[in-house]
Amino acid sequence: MSEIVEKIIRLIEEHGDSQYGGEAVSQKEHALQAAHLAMENGEQANIVVAGLLHDIGHLLHHLPDDAPDHGVDDFHEELANDFLKQHFTNEVVEPVRLHVAAKRYLCQVDPSYLGLLSEPSIISLGLQGGPMTLEECAIFEANPYHKDAVILRKYDDLAKVPELEVKPVAYYAPYLESFTL
Ligand SMILES: [Fe+2]
C-alpha cells in the first residue's frame, strides 16, 4: 500500500471520532457512509473515493467541531484541496474542492434543495456565502467536474444516518490507490 493511502486510512481511523459538525454521526461515520451510499447507488469509483475524502479537510485543522456556530468558516474544502491535489487525480480532487460550491449552486437552481438541508448545513451555508448568484452558477457550470461535485453533494447530504452499517476504511484502499498520482 502506498504511503499516502496508509496515511489517509490512519487519519480517518484515528481522528475520525470527532462529531461531524452538529450532526448525529462522527466524521468517520460520515466519510464511510458517503462512500458506501455512492457505491450502493452504482456511482463511478471517483465519486466513491471523493465521498470518503470530501471532508478530510475537517481532520486537517484544529478548530472545534462547532466552529460554524461561532461564525467561523473552517474552509475545509480548501484545506482538503491543498492536501489532496499533491497525491490524487482531478477526478477525485475537483469534486471535493467543489462540494461546498455545489451546495451553494443547488440552493440557487433547485428550490426544493434548501428544505433537504440539515440545520448545521444551513448555518454553514450562510458563512460560505449563501446561495450562488446566477453569474456564479454560470462559472460553476463551466467547470468540467461540476456534475460530479453535485453528485458527491447528494451523498454528503445523505451520509448522516445514525448507526448505519458500513464497510471499514481499509476496504477502500484499492479504490484510493487507483486515483493516486
Ligand atoms: Fe460532508
Give a nutshell description of this structure:
The protein has 181 residues and is an all-alpha fold. It is built from eleven helices and no strands.
What does this protein structure show overall?
This protein is an all-alpha fold and 181 residues long. It has one domain: Hypothetical protein af1432. 57% of the residues lie in helices and 0% in strands. It is built from eleven helices and no strands. It has helices at 3-15, 27-40, 45-53, 76-84, 90-97, 99-109, 113-116, 119-127, 134-141, 146-158, 173-177. The model has no long low-confidence stretch (mean pLDDT 92). Fe (ii) ion binds at residues 30, 54-55, 156.
- Distance N to C terminus: 14 Å
Class of secondary structure makeup: mainly alpha
Largest sheet entry: none
CATH class value: Mainly Alpha
Hetero groups bound? fe (ii) ion
Mean pLDDT: 92
Strand-residue fraction?
A: under 5%
Supply Rg: 15 Å
CATH topology label: Hypothetical protein af1432
Q: Assign an overall shape.
A: globular
Number of domains: 1
Q: Regions with pLDDT < 50 over 5+ consecutive residues? A: none
Q: CATH superfamily, please?
A: Hypothetical protein af1432
Question: Characteristics of this structure?
Answer:
single chain, 181 residues, binds fe (ii) ion
